[in-house]
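Please, structure for the following, as tokens.
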Amino acid sequence: MTEIRKLTVNDMNEFRKIRIKGLNSDPYAFSSSPEDDATRDPEVLKDRFGSMSDDNFIMGCFVDDSLCGVAGFVRESHVKRKHIGWIWGMYVDTDYRGQKYGDNLFAELIKEATKCKGLEIIELGVAESNLPAVSLYKKYGFLEYGKEIDAIKYDGKYYDEYLMYKRI
């Protein structure tokens, strides 16, 4: 059975596990590293989960009650930028890729984000080399508006990142 829903504080430990797995398995795809998350005070994560709202949330995809995918959304807080939201940390466990879980998770994330009153634009960044993710985002109408050169440096190698957006 598959369930896609917003995560709660009760999901915090499972989120942390899949987040660390993602940072290790696809290090070029995230600006965070396992070391960043490992040294972060657990209370910071607890605060993040405690402060979730309609415009700041993490979606999770569960298969047979096991968390296999996550994606976060946060809306800009400055008055002049409240019309913009950001998708961050999209990850599907390698064992579950190619089975539409990521597609379904992303669709549900977009659906939830568009419920934010006054939201006009959703943005994200994606490693240029992550072709399956780039393809997924394009499928949902995201367009490239720029490229950050050398956005990620991992193991002595640089990765460029596409900046993408969608008007809703």
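The first strand starts at residue 2 and ends at 6. The chain has a mean pLDDT of 91.
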